[in-house]
Amino acid sequence: MGIDLDISTPEGWHAALAALRWQMELGVDEFIGDTPINAYDLPDRKAAPAEAPAATPPKRAAAEPYIPQISPAERAAQAADAAVADAAARAAAAANLDALREALAGYDHCEVKKGARNLVFSDGRPGARVLILGEAPGRDEDLEGRPFVGAAGQLLDRMFAAIGLSRDNPDLQHALYITNVMPWRPPGNRDPSPEEIAMMRPFVERHITLAAPDVIVLMGNTPCSALLGAKGILRLRGTWTEALGRPVMPMTHPAYLLRNPVAKREAWADLLAIKARLG
Fold it and tell me: Is 104 inside a domain boundary?
C-alpha cells in the first residue's frame, strides 16, 4: 500500500513530515541527488595516466684535457735537456773551427754568456800535436778574448816552453792549441756548474775533433769532468787515460801551482811524461 505524500493536502503534508522524521532517525542526514545510486556497482576503471617521460640528465660540460702538473725541478730538467740537444745539433753542424766559433756565439741557453764581455774561443795553432783544455776564462781572458793570458797563462807558457812547446810556434810539431770548456767567464770566477758543463760538452768534443791533436792535456777539474766524467785532479793527475780516442794527461791547473808552489815538482813530472809520449 502506497503512502500519499502530496503535501498540498494537510494529510499529505503530515505524512511527508513523518516520513522525513523516520529517515532522520535512521541516520539519513544528506540528500545527494535525484538519481538513485547503487552502492554495489564497481567504479569505472579510469585510464592510467601516461608515465611521465624520464627526465633527461643534464648534459655534462665537456671534460677539459688533462694536463699533468710539472714540478719546477722537472721543468728545469726538461729545459736542460733541450739546451744540451741544441748544443749537440749546433756542434755537429760545424764543418770547421770558424763555423764552430759562430755556433758558440749564437748559442743563448747558457746564462753565463750574458755577463761575459767576450767569447774566449781559442789560441795557438790549430793542428798542433798538443791541445790544452782549460776550465774557464778569468778576468784577463774575458777582457782580451784569449785563453790563459793572465798570471796562470804566463806560468803555463813557461811550463810548456821547458819541453819545447809554445802556442805561437809555426812548427805544428812544437806548437800548442789552447781552449777552455767554458768560452765565457763565470761570475766571480766561480767553477762552472754540472749543467753548464753538460751544455758545453758537445762543443768541446767537436772542437777537439776539428783541431785533431795527438795528445790532450786536461788542466784542472772542469776539463776532467767534461771529458772523463770524473773529478779529483790531485788523484787523476800524472796518469795517462783516454778520451775521444786520444791519449789524455790530467794536470793541476797553473793557478793551483801559483798558490801551491810545492806542487810544481809533480807538474814537471807530468810535463816530462807528455814530452816522452810525443817521442
Answer: yes
Q: Which three cell numbers stand for residue 192?
A: 762552472
Domain count, the chain: 1
Per the domain annotation, does 43 fall within a domain?
no
Nearest alpha carbon to residue 246 among 203, 201, 277, 202: 277
* CB neighbours of residue 77 within 10 Å: 13
H-helix or E-strand spanning residue 117: none
Per-residue pLDDT tens digits for 246-279: 999 999 999 999 999 999 999 999 999 999 999 8
Residue 66 in any domain: the answer is: no
* Residue 153 and residue 147 in contact, taking contact as beta carbons nearer than 8 Å: yes
Q: What is the CATH number of the domain that holds 119?
A: 3.40.470.10
Closest C-alpha to 173, from 133, 132, 213: 213
| Pairwise CA distance, residues 186 & 115, whole Å | 8
Quote the pTM value: 0.74
DSSP symbol at 42 = P
DSSP E strand boundaries for 60-211: 123-124, 130-134, 176-180
Q: pLDDT tens digit string along 38-52?
A: 666 666 655 555 666
Q: Which residues, including other chains, have CB under 8 Å from residue 273's CB and lie 6 or more apart? A: 238, 240, 249
H-run or E-run covering 218: strand 215-219
215: how many CB neighbours lie within 10 A of its CB? 17
Interhelix angle for 151-161 vs 264-278, to 10°? Answer: 50
